[in-house]
Amino acid sequence: MLTPTLRLTLPSRANVQGCPSAKSSPLSRHFAAQESDQDLPKMASAVLGDLSSTSALAAGNLRQAQGKSIGVFTSGGDSQGMNAAVRAVVRMGIHVGFRVYYIHEGYQGMVDGADNIKEATWTSVSGIIQQGGTVIGSARCQDFRERAGRLKAAANLVKLGISNLVVIGGDGSLTGANCFRQEWAGLLEELEKKGEITAEQSKNCSHLNIVGMVGSIDNDFCGTDMTIGCDTALHRIMESVDAITTTAQSHQRTFVMEVMGRHCGYLALVTALACGADWLFIPEWPPEADWEDHMCRRLSELRTAGSRLGIVIMAEGAIDQKGSAITSNRVKEIISTRLGHDTRVTVLGHVQRGGNPSAFDRVLGCRMGAEAVLALLEAKPDTPACVVSLDGNQAVRVNLMECVERTQQVAAAMKKGNFENCVSLRGRSFRNNLEIYKILSHVKPPNNPQQSPVVVRQLSRCSVDGAANMFSPSSTSNRCPVPAKRPRWSADDNNPLKTGFECEHVFNIGIMNVGAPAAGMNAAVRSAVRTAILNGHQPYAIYEGFEGLAEGRVKVPKWMDVHTLIGEGGSYLGTNRTQPAKLGLPQIASKFKEFNLSALIIIGGFEAYDSVLQLAEARPQYKEFCIPMVVIPCTISNNVPGTEFSLGTDTALNAITDICDRIKQSASGTKRRVFVVETMGGYCGYLATLAGLAGGADAAYIFEERFGMRDLQTDVEHLAKKMVEGVERGLILRNEKCNENYTTDFIYQLYCEEGKGIFSARKNVLGHMQQGGCPSPFDRNLGTKLAAKSVAFLAEKMHNNYKEEGGRVVVECNEEDTACLIGLNRRTVQFSPVTHIKSQTDFQDDTLTRTVSIEEAEEFSMTTTLTPVTHLKAWSDFKHRLPREQWWLKLRPLLRILAKHESVYEVEGTEASIE
């Protein structure tokens, strides 16, 4: 069923720039644009212009919330990012005309009433986006479980005219809200009979509308890919693991680390994948009966292989096959007694709930909070209670009780011992994480899997029917071995590294970095090396990119060479921006031949994509380039076409957000201070925009959205008004190449001059600190998964395109789909050219939503796609190194609305249901 969404319109920056009419598609104007400095700004303005003009019809709906009230509360356990959600609900609610009330202390405050329910103002949520926990409090409430308590709560709400509730909590809190909604009519009738409310009050609040947001660090709620707080909890866990690693290495200790999650193993699983843990206990995947022997053998082999530490990750709800609890102390005793290792237990506990929220959780809270308000604005008496969830990279509205029922099915399946069903119910992301962990958790490559019970057992657990016979790495004097025969193996449909074929030969896979260093590069290298070995192929590490290849700086890495890379920042292989055309394609082709490369993985940014494009287009002249090639996008700029996220952007975004928090703190300590901060990103405004949203910035200037003196003056006036209203600080972000004339110095001097007597200004250029630091959990896991799937793709193409030539086996292919870029996109069509995606998209009218089930949502949610680089060429601005379509531009109006600018915001929520 197709239902129109609501768009909210106010005078916006796009309107004053003379944007084109909505009658012409932004895509058609996009392709009509010439390669000039103004191409991208025109395109972005066209998109925003379409939004403003097409939504003019809905302008009458803008203040339809006048006279209505929203109550927002947090319930159950707290989680980081709740404050961002509360802030978004308050500000978006006020923006569309609602009166918004805080309900302090959750359901208990609703029952007690009085000072626990207070009206919120715009300034009352200023400065809370970076705070952990919940500023309005949360509590468990026994009174609300009884009808008498719910009767008191209803009376308190009706007296204030509150008939719309935003609930931020877990499944218990959301279930309670739905029960409250179902009883609402009866409660009001009883209150009216008792004389506690008037007939008019009862009529004005005759229907209770409920919208939920899931705030939980456990990520145990079905119907959403991520819950508010989960990403930050992973940050706290990974910080602890990284800190413990140094002391464990110093003393050759084994650490058993217990993480939270109740009966959900998501935190433990992602942590194990992100740190390369040696053993994992989660309730959805209990170990076999002989797990003690297997675990001790694994840890012993690691020490023999040269590892100085051992890391065992445990979910607090870990159980065995019989359902009996496995405790961290029991695991410690087994390791200490059998192996004699110095073993310590670390229970992280509520540290995981603390600290400042990550950039992801802040942006998630902002998007969900805004969407919750707009869902209430659209709600009708017969609209069922819904949960605003995250499906891939899109906000969706899912029936509340359908999600709760699915969540309860997981607990029921676990109680029955049906663990396969548990994993399935957790969703595709959970399944993929688990399978890839199984693949990469080997201690070493098996020399003879047929005689190794450990390897046979491990491979069987990850649904692999057979295994490759590994060979010793070549010596430096024999760098180019002729592909050898090996035992055949295949993978079934449940394996994310599925190849669907049998391969008999060993091929050489080159792995290199091209472009600027970014967090996640090393995680991708580690995964590519180990997955290649496990597939029976020979990885070749190419140092210093194409320059290193030209000079012969190539090495065959061993299994343990990459053991610790997953948590390291920078580039282990070394990287630079030099592309093959600059060095000379004949020289590069000769090196491909010298090292007998049968496939190539390039990890890097726009230069990496351009390099593979150069090689692919040169195939008719150089048969050495007729091999399968994959680009893994890795750049902090997030400017690579064919993917919505690049490796490194999450880490960089967190670094910028953290610095902005410190800058805002400085501004708070100095009366009436505005900071102008310059971010990196080249011509791409992703970092400035998302950091602005996560950091609560007042404005973010980017290349894709044109701005002029009038806009700068408007922002100065906005800040002056803000100072007068009591918020005596300001934050302005500027992308480094947003405008060659309006430089950081110019904007700083303008603010200094125009703000005289009202505020002072300072500037900060963040520079290369945005590239440094340890990778975030997201970047570690994304790098691991993209590299593993890239190797599987290459293995399939090599198998399908090899032939005997002159007594040796060579790979030769020149089809477009053998030179691809792997990325995260909302569509699931593998190897889909962008031109095909174009035909499936209505760019003129994107105001329709589709009701889908959770099963369908998994098919349409964000997943890995492989797009031929030749098809991406038409969608690339090579002069500015930018893709011509960027999803995050739709978030810019939200940034300005939450900063109290008048702007346009498009509802992004898609209605979804279980069935």
Structure description:
This protein is an alpha/beta fold. It folds into 5 domains: 8-61 and 833-860 and 885-912, no CATH class; 69-227 and 357-412, Rossmann fold; 230-353, 3-Layer(aba) Sandwich (Rossmann fold), CATH 3.40.50; 431-647 and 775-825, Rossmann fold (3-Layer(aba) Sandwich); 674-770, 3-Layer(aba) Sandwich (Rossmann fold). The protein contains 30 helices and 31 strands. It has an 8-stranded mixed beta sheet, with helices on both faces. Strands 16-15-14-17-18-25-27 form a 7-stranded mixed beta sheet, with helices on both faces. It has a 4-stranded parallel beta sheet with strand order 9-10-8-11, sandwiched between helices. It starts with a strand and ends with a strand. The model is unreliable at 1-61, 448-502 and 827-854 (pLDDT under 50). Pfam families: PFK. Mg(2+) binds at residue 171. It comes from Branchiostoma lanceolatum. This is ATP-dependent 6-phosphofructokinase.
